[in-house]
Design brief:
Layout (H helix, E strand, L loop, with lengths): L6 H52 L6 H9 L3 E2 L2 E2 L7 E7 L3 E4 L9 E11 L10 E15 L5 E7 H9 L17 H8 L7 E5 L7 E11 L14 H10 L14 E4 L5 H12 L7 E4 L8 E10 L7 E18 L7 E8 L6 E2 L6 E5 L2
Parallel strand pairs: 7-12, 8-9
Antiparallel strand pairs: 1-2, 3-4, 3-5, 5-6, 6-15, 6-16, 7-9, 8-14, 9-10, 10-13, 11-13, 12-13, 13-14
Helix pairs in contact: 1-2, 5-6
């Protein structure tokens, strides 16, 4: 029987073959890794370009969207070369959650999105051995103009939306609102809020009476979203200390995300004591005898995010349920402690709307842009 005697020679041949395979695989890995790296760089550029185009829609100058996207893309390099974004690669569109991106024109009144596609021709290194020279790499991004939706750090009080309207538009000699609660906030309203100060303070009383100046304590977080599918709000009010932490403490005590359309479950009672505790914690002062106590300056550090309701429907939950119209930033200025013959109450003014929150396509007072692809 013949035996293979030169085994070291066979091993050498096998090693040479395996090294060739391994080196070839490594070479392809390097080349393809470079292409993926180029694609990641392109995505950064396409993201920035589409956002630049959407920003022009937000500014109500959509015709300048392509130029803005192209100008921003030209500031980037991929593979050492400047990115040249072609006008044809900046596309106007409409975007919805259900339908996605649909191409339209720059003059379409429903225009709310921009798609940008960046391109780069990458050169192979080791791939040339196998006849591969270049590879076309692309990346596409879509940016949409939307609205600020649900936001966190909402405090456990429900404030009537009418109170905000009364601050902006006032009331007549009989105390009747000059602007009905059906009013949608406008850009002019937002600008008015930005310029607000203590002179525009409105009283927020506490109590069960359904008057426009009242606010109500809540079981947080949301009882249900806009479809009225019940959730699980905080199981109980928790007494003065818990309310004080949630009303006057940091946002870690109010982690719920709440936005327009959500339903909030209220609680009965005047809540004079818990509100006093919350005010004391927020403003860092002690309240003893009856009187009016002012938050120390600077007042802008005493701001809280609150839910404003325009609809009450006690059939949704018990004892009462409020549907959120907007969320707003309220600056607390003072607290009035009665001598027992009247209601305690907080005064302050609405200064703005929350600028941070989830991205939503539901129209609201504050617009924002965001990437959807």
């Amino acid at each position: 029987m013949t035996r293979l005697k030169n085994r070291p020679g066979v091993t050498l041949v096998l090693m040479a073959f395996m090294l060739t395979v391994l080196l070839g695989s490594a070479a392809f890995g390097v080349d393809f890794g470079r292409m993926f790296f180029y694609r990641a760089q392109l995505h950064t550029v396409s993201d920035a370009a589409s956002l630049a185009g959407a920003l022009q829609i937000l500014k109500k100058v959509p015709a300048s969207s392509p130029d803005s996207a192209i100008a921003l893309a030209s500031r980037y390099t991929v593979g050492g070369s400047a990115v040249a974004l072609a006008p044809a690669d900046v596309i106007p569109g409409t975007w919805t959650l259900a339908g996605g991106f649909v191409t339209t024109t720059w003059t379409d009144p429903n225009l709310n999105a921009v798609q940008a596609t960046t391109r780069y021709t990458g050169t192979y290194g080791f791939g040339k051995i196998f006849g591969l020279s270049t590879h076309n790499v692309t990346a596409t991004s879509q940016a949409v103009m939307g609205y600020v939706g649900a936001t966190t750090c909402i405090r456990p009080v429900a404030i009537p939306y009418q109170s905000l309207l009364n601050q902006i538009y006032g009331v007549d000699a009989s105390g009747n609102p000059l602007m009905p609660v059906t009013h949608d906030l406008t850009d002019a309203d937002i600008n008015t809020l930005k310029a607000a100060g203590p002179a525009m303070s409105v009283p927020l009383k506490i109590g069960d009476d359904a008057t426009s100046g009242n606010f109500y304590i809540l079981q947080m977080g949301p009882y249900a979203h806009s479809n009225q599918v019940a959730l699980s709000p905080s199981p109980n009010f928790g007494g003065n200390n818990v309310f004080g932490d949630r009303f006057g403490g940091n946002c870690a005590n109010s982690p719920w995300s709440i936005g327009p359309g959500d339903w909030l479950e209220g609680k009965q009672g005047d809540a004079n004591g818990p509100t006093e505790t919350g005010f004391s914690e927020l403003c860092g002062i002690s309240i003893n005898s009856p009187g009016t106590y002012s938050c120390p300056a600077p007042l802008d550090t005493r701001s809280i995010k609150v839910a404003m309701w325009a609809t009450e429907n006690d059939g949704v939950c018990s004892p009462r349920c409020f549907q959120v119209r907007y969320t707003g930033v309220f600056i607390v200025t003072s607290y009035t402690k009665s001598n027992g013959s009247g209601q305690d109450g907080i005064s302050g003014y609405f200064s703005s709307m929350p600028s941070t929150g989830s991205f939503s396509t539901v129209p609201g007072p504050l617009q924002k842009i965001g990437l959807v692809k």
